[in-house]
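Dear H.,

Thanks for agreeing to be a second pair of eyes. The structure we're designing against is below in token form, covering all 316 positions.
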């Protein structure tokens, strides 16, 4: 296909209205005309308010991990602990009609780095799964964790990242897998958290950077989901990046700062980097910064939800 108007010199951070995508090319509004840019040179982002169902793109360079401030000089806050484990699911590349979730893999890499460097989790005891297709793949990953725990009392830190929705019939929270098969791609977080709750855990932390693509008014769905864990494990904490009627936004300012992470995951890592390891301090830090940044950049609300005990710590 021959495109007559191709943008080859676009400033980093430029934000343009997306018109359509054809293969490796994206048509955008540039001034009063429509032009094409390479899909490899831009990142799709969601717009708020009246544009909430439309997309924009922001021009980004290929920047290696370690170039963003929270990716460098990560502090060591704990010694290695063989009783601590990590479990990560992060979905970025979707086979279905969903657009790729920007920087989800980089978010997972960041959290994995903080688990091993700051929080004392042995690298071989971190289970990381990228682009999980659906329920069966998630079940297989969970089974691997169970086999390694071998019924031994342990501490577990879970990080989930991806598109999510609240089922209109059951009210259950679903993490959307990357499979193009709609029925097979549904990952019931109620079932997954029930599995975690029945493990021999002395301490459980679940961090969920969920981007609700179909905003739901059933805000209590997260409270019901969290109760599955908190009713079983007293020493448990669950924190969500946003309410079920909100999006989890990318930290990308038009013509400005590009943090290459979600707002929530960026500030979570930055809080730990600043030495906050108890959930009371981390929660306060996130409540101050996530909502402020979301409103500043996108003029849209993004309020974290917290359940469980804020007296728990990420390190002993």
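And this is the sequence the design step returned. I haven't edited it by hand at all.
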């Amino acid at each position: 296909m021959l495109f007559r108007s191709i943008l080859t010199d676009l400033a980093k951070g430029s934000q343009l209205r997306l018109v359509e995508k054809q293969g490796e090319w994206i048509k955008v509004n540039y001034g009063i005309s429509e032009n094409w840019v390479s899909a490899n040179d831009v990142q799709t982002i969601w717009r708020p308010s009246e544009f909430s169902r439309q997309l924009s793109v922001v021009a980004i360079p290929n920047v290696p991990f370690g170039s963003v401030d929270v990716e460098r000089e990560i502090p060591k806050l704990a010694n290695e602990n063989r009783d601590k484990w990590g479990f990560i699911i992060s979905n970025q590349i979707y086979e279905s009609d969903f657009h790729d979730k920007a920087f989800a893999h980089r978010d997972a890499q960041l959290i994995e780095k903080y688990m091993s460097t700051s929080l004392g989790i042995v690298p071989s005891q971190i289970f990381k799964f990228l682009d999980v297709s659906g329920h069966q793949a998630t079940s297989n990953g969970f089974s691997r964790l169970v086999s390694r725990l071998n019924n031994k009392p342990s501490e577990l830190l879970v990080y989930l990242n991806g598109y999510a929705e609240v089922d209109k019939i059951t009210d259950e929270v679903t993490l959307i897998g990357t499979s193009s098969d709609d029925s097979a791609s549904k990952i019931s977080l109620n079932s997954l958290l029930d599995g975690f709750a029945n493990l021999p855990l002395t301490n459980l932390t679940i961090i969920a950077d969920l981007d609700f693509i179909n905003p739901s008014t059933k805000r209590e769905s997260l409270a019901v989901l969290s109760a599955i864990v908190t009713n079983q494990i007293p020493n448990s904490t669950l924190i969500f990046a946003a309410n079920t009627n909100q999006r989890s936004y990318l930290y990308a300012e038009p013509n400005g700062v590009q943090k290459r992470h979600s707002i929530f995951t960026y500030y979570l890592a930055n809080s730990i980097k600043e030495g906050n390891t108890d959930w009371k301090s981390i929660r306060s830090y996130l409540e101050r910064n996530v909502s402020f940044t979301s409103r500043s950049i996108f003029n849209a609300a993004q309020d974290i939800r917290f359940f469980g005990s804020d007296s728990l710590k990420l390190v002993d």
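Two observations from my side: Confidence is low (pLDDT under 50) at residues 48-53. The CA atoms of residues 22 and 180 lie 19 Å apart.

Warmly,
E.
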